[in-house]
Amino acid sequence: MQQQGVLETGDLEEALNAAQAIGDDRLQQQSQGRVVPDSFTHGTSQQRYSWFKRGFDSGDPAQCNTFGKSI
């Protein structure tokens, strides 16, 4: 994508950082001071990072089916 002029240097890193920043574990730790995995609804920071990266690297949205595949 960078070769096509769609992304600038650092864009992917920023997107991956954002994906990690909004993981359920990180948000709960920041807001409640503790993490309750049974209440997660959108994935951990690591899961969000991994799925975003998998989709970006493959270029195939089907690779991002979080219900049908494991990380």
Topology:
Blueprint: H1 11-21, H2 24-32, H3 45-58
Concise summary:
This protein has 71 residues and is an all-alpha fold.
Structure, explained:
The protein is mainly alpha-helical and 71 residues long. Helix content is 48%, strand content 0%. It has helices at residues 11-21, 24-32, 45-58. The chain is flat, with a radius of gyration of 14 Å. The relative contact order is 0.14. The mean pLDDT is 89.
Q: What is the total domain count?
A: 1
Give helix and strand order, one letter per element, not per position. HHH
Average pLDDT score = 89
Strand fraction = under 5%
**Based on CA inertia axes, which overall geometry fits?**
flat
What is the end-to-end distance? Answer: 23 Å
* Main structural class: mainly alpha
Membrane topology: Single-pass membrane protein
Subcellular location: Membrane
GO molecular function, one term: metallopeptidase activity
InterPro entries: Uncharacterised_pept_Zn_put (IPR007343)
Annotation keywords:
48% helix, Uncharacterised_pept_Zn_put, mainly alpha
